[in-house]
Design brief:
Length: 253
């Protein structure tokens, strides 16, 4: 794996998984060999978002530590998620050491095969998973996702501070749910979660604001149907933003 990109957020529900999935799809559309590791152990949603929730990844022959998990392939992406290994609706209640070991297995016992980029969807917050990951593998860079809202910014600040402490390079901020453009009134914009949050956070930390993703209804619909918007509707504003984000990430390396 050439480059590992961690997608994180201070709190849940800000669209971190949506960003990780669409970033991975957009990197693959640039012709890059891309993997997606859903390390959001407590809420692994990427199999549903990618339309592969029913599938079970196979393992290679052998036994014990010789065995490797074979990722599921969809939209040109190799996907591994905790969601494949637990029954739907089951909670995952693990303590730090177990979490550490599953994250290491996801990194070292999967047939990732010469990827250009591995995008990692981290759990929200500043916990064991982030620490395990940064100690298990060199992360090329982390992206912090926030909405423009103040409470989201406060949590994002904690996330940024953690990556700095762990010595993980920061690539920049992605502001999600920046504005809502009603489909029947494309001339109008509603700043539902406030304004300027991503820019503030970027300035405070001397980081670039990599993308501002609007609220778009198809982002919800398509995600429910298991087709990321950047695949199903590449001309939507959010898909274009995801494409630009992928290009920016590619250019960094
Ligand atoms: P997180 O990973 O931060 O918990 P998700 O990516 O699961 O967040 O997103 C939470 C919900 O918000 C999902 O239903 C998703 O479809 C929706 N969502 C995320 N970003 C957008 C957006 N820009 N426009 C509309 N809906 C969005």
């Amino acid at each position: 794996i050439q480059h590992i990109i961690a997608v994180s957020s201070g709190k849940g529900g800000v669209g971190k998984s949506t960003i990780a999935v669409n970033l991975a799809c957009s990197l693959a559309k640039l012709g890059l060999k891309t993997g997606l590791l859903d390390a959001d152990i407590y809420g692994p949603n990427t199999p549903s978002m990618m339309g592969v929730a029913e599938q079970n990844p196979k393992v290679t022959e052998g036994s014990g530590s010789d065995q490797r998990l074979i990722p599921i392939n969809k939209y040109g992406i190799s996907l591994v998620s905790m969601g494949f290994l637990i029954e739907e609706g089951q909670p995952v209640i693990w303590r730090g050491p177990m979490l550490n070991s599953i994250i290491r297995q996801f990194l070292y016992q999967v047939e990732w095969n010469n990827l250009d980029f591995l995008v990692i969807d981290l759990p929200p917050g500043t916990g064991d998973a982030q620490i395990s990951l940064s100690q298990s593998v060199p992360i090329s860079g982390a992206i912090v996702v926030t909405t423009p809202q103040q409470v989201s910014l406060q949590d994002a600040r904690r996330g940024l501070a953690m990556f700095k402490q762990l010595g993980v390079p920061l690539l920049g901020i992605v502001e999600n749910m920046s504005v809502f453009i009603p489909p029947d009134m494309p001339g109008k914009k509603y700043e539902i979660f406030g304004k300027g949050g991503g820019q503030t956070l970027a300035k405070e930390n001397d980081l670039p604001l990599l993308a501002q993703i609007p609220i778009e209804i198809p982002l919800v619909d398509e995600s429910n149907k298991g087709v990321p918007i950047s695949i199903s509707q590449p001309n939507k504003k959010s898909s274009i933003e995801f494409g630009n984000l992928a290009q920016l990430i590619k250019n960094q390396f």
